[in-house]
Amino acid sequence: MIAITEDNQNIEITRGDATQKDYNVLAFKFPIYNVETQQEEDYEFQPTDKITFVCFDKKGYTKEEIIRKNYLVSDLGYVQPTTIVELPLTSEDTKKFPLLNKGKKYWFDLVLNDEVTILGRAIEIKIKLSKYIWRTIC
Predict the structure, then answer these.
(1) Residues pairing with 73 in the sheet
(2) Which of 75, 41, 69 is nearest to 55 (CA)?
């Protein structure tokens, strides 16, 4: 299972699971506050944008990363600007988490063009098997 919690703050991942096109999708948008209009607007990802997904132990910014995935938006199939980007994770990616007999929290960052952190929240790795279908956008 790969899912974003109802509060859109955490990602739950079962070790060894992969994202897939119709379910288990990690989709993100990047809201930006416009000072002039005093409205929140969604950033338009360009095909040339780079997004980096980094995961590490909770409170472990100075420790070794568990996952670092770099994505070019165009390599994800987006040829036009888009406000929502889906990031794939393979089974091999999620198997990089240690094999445990209970859940454990990790931190993650999404970084845009090596300059701006889009989101950084906790990931809880779920060990129990679940069969849920998710397509959640945070």
Answers:
(1) none
(2) 69
Q: Which two tokens stand for residue 63?
A: 């420790």
Give the mean pLDDT of 3-14: 70
pLDDT by residue (tens digit) across 87-101? 888 889 888 887 777
Give DSSP secondary structure letters for the chain: -EEE-TTSS-EEEETT----SSSSEEEE--EEEETTTTEEEE--B-TT-EEEEEEEETT-TTS--SEEEEEEGGGGT--S-BS-EEE---HHHHTTS---SS-EEEEEEEEETTTEEEE--EEEEE-S------EEE-
Measure the CA–CA gap between 2 and 15, rounded to whole angstroms: 9
Alpha carbon distance 122, 89 (integer Å): 17
For the stretch 107-122, pLDDT in tens is: 888 889 998 887 655 4
Q: With a threshold of 0.90, does the pTM exceed it? A: no
